[in-house]
Amino acid sequence: MLSFAARLGWMLIALGLALPALADEVQDAAKLLKAGQHRQALDLVNKVLKAKPKDAQARFLKGLILTEQGNAKEAIEIFTQLTKDYPELPEPYNNLAVIYASQGQYDRARAALEQSIRTHPSYATAYENLGDVYAKLASQAYDKALQIDSSNTAAKNKLSLVRELVGRPSPTVVAAAPKEPAKEPAKPPVVAEKAKPAPEKPAPAPAADPSAEVLKTVNAWADAWSKKNADAYLAHYARDFKTPGKETRAEWEKNRRARITAPKSISVSIAAPKVTMNGADRATVRFRQNYKSDVLKSNSQKTLVLVKSDGAWKIVEEKSG
Amino acid sequence: MRLLLALLLVFSVGAWAAPTPEDRLSAVFEAIEANRLDEAMQRVDALIQEHPNFRLAHLVRGDLLLARGRPLETFGNVAKTVPAEKVEGLRNEAFARLRALRSRPGEDRLPRYVLQLHAEQKHVLVVDSRRSRLYVFANAQGRPQLIADYYVTIGKNGIEKTRQGDQKTPLGVYHVTANLPRNKLTDFYGAGAFPINYPNEWDRRQGRNGYGIWLHGVPRDVYARPPRASDGCIVLSNPDLESVARHVQVGLTPVIIADEVEWADAASIETERKTLAATFEQWRADWQSRNTDRYLAHYSERFASGGQNLAAWAAHKRKVNGAKQWIKVGTSRVAMFRYPRERDFVVVTFDQDYRSDGLSNVMRKRQYWVKEGASWKIIYEGAG
Hints:
With 321 residues, chain A is of the alpha+beta class. Chain A has helices spanning 2-18, 24-34, 38-51, 56-69, 72-85, 90-102, 106-119, 124-146, 153-167, 210-226, 230-234, 249-261, and strands at 266-277, 282-293, 297-309, 312-320. Chain A folds into two domains: 2-146, Tetratricopeptide repeat domain (Serine Threonine Protein Phosphatase 5, Tetratricopeptide repeat, Alpha Horseshoe), CATH 1.25.40; 210-320, Nuclear Transport Factor 2, Chain: A (Roll), CATH 3.10.450. In chain A, strand 3 and strand 4 (312-320) form a beta hairpin. In chain A, helix 7 (106-119) runs antiparallel to helix 8. The radius of gyration of chain A is 22 Å and the shape is globular. By secondary structure, chain B is α+β, with helices and mostly antiparallel strands. Helix content of chain B is 33%, strand content 28%. Chain B has helices spanning 2-15, 21-33, 37-50, 55-66, 84-102, 201-205, 238-245, 266-289, 292-296, 310-322, and strands spanning 109-111, 114-116, 123-128, 133-140, 143-151, 154-155, 172-175, 180-181, 192-195, 214-216, 228-230, 234-235, 254-258, 263-265, 304-305, 308-309, 327-338, 345-356, 361-372, 375-383. In chain B, the strands form six sheets. In chain B, strands 2-17-18-19-20 form a five-stranded antiparallel sheet. In chain B, strands 5-4-3-13-7 form a five-stranded mixed sheet. Chain B is elongated and about 90 Å long. Classes of the chains: A alpha+beta (321), B alpha+beta (384).
């Protein structure tokens, strides 16, 4: 649960930035929590809530403190109520899921995370957590298939192993299921969509070809991401980049920085890119993004819209799916 | 018109049973193939809800869940270190089930073994060991008609049982000898058991031994077992065993166990049946005619029965037949099955009504016929 706990802490920062009107006391309580002074943090946040019982940040923080204290029952109550009062916020769903997962209630965790993603399709933390939860659920299903007792300690140790495996680079075999076999024995289809291996890095193209230039930029962007070089990564985004949802540019940058720096390792590669030029200075690139980190592996469709200004291509829009 | 439609609907609902768990699993695979993964998940969840002991369904569910986070490397992508044969058993079950569902025998294809059923034999069971499949044929005016087929488990070491403890399933033509209901058995045998007559006369003559080959169900905690997992028995899931049980007549229902079933068209089977029926009739007529030379010409040099070889048999028959003023031989309830694997080898079972001026008796008989050169000869004859 270590990584879950770490991501819980994260959430606090994220929310703090999302809601800048944070009361001083709540900020102090957050600091106390960070310092591991749970009791003092709780006292302070309770004081705030006495004056402002509806205060979302204070309630959220209280949920975090209770979680850290191992008071799952009350923490669940708080986060559940927050999801009802603020169904558009992904964080309470995510944290609910983290608590459910820590209790081994992976089906509930999954439901909460799916909800979190529904409210915020680009919410990376929920995706990462969901990846873990799916792996756990899969492990439980396999245990049932093989009649292994999931409750014993050995199985638990192996469970955490599964999570590490998720981020381990592995060959992306995965072919679509065979069609009606003629003479050959039928094979059960392997689940998952057809994934093409990422192509070798394209050779530097002559500058005259604008779509090659665009592709080069996209590869450089993926490269910066893989190197966890947040500055280089963010430099690929245009000043007028459309941030998702209601995030300000500052919030968005902060979140992206966190997303890039949090995992121990990241590897991003681009597969099957398709560049469409919309005039000489605007291009749309669709590709499959193979993302691997120590915590998550995902393969998704991505679209970037780039615009050329001052001789350089910059991202103005980013869409997943 | 509307009434007719309504009637049709009622009829078809009655005629078509609800989809089996295997059908439903197949629908899950179809959804996966079409990349409708959410639908696949819903289907497998519903299947598990109803059949929580269907381990293969859990394996597929595991894959569907895992695939949401990462690409899969294989079917049954179990990450834990588990004995390989456990996963392999489930994979093989999936292969066997899918293969059987997707390559069903054509409408006009019949098992070559079933030459003739007699009127009281309502059904015949044919096992294809390689496909892990048991086919149930109804007797439609003497001709087999496929009505159902089921996934089965056979011996750990395959087929062609020869020795006690070899964990193989016998290959041959047998019949059900008893019906052991659930309450007479331990949970291991599940919904019931039907012993078969292994070793039969031919097996014993070949020196094969062992005993206790049954068709039976599975323990409560599993829905099915891997394709090769028994000690030689033929194992069906409990609902499947219950379905088969409805068609089983103790002492009558043939169980033909083949390596890989040979399928043929009705016309060529009928040609063979006619030839054999004519030869069999000739044997009867020659016996009745008291022309012992012609009668004995139906027996093979390799003939043996209960310690008698051909010479002893011939001497005995010459003595008996020669002393008769008249003989009448009637045959009825004749069933004829070609033996799997053996080359031109047929088992004929019939009621023999023997009358003569000295002795009359009625008995159930069994003969094994082999083709020697161009003609069919009896290699064994005895009470059946």
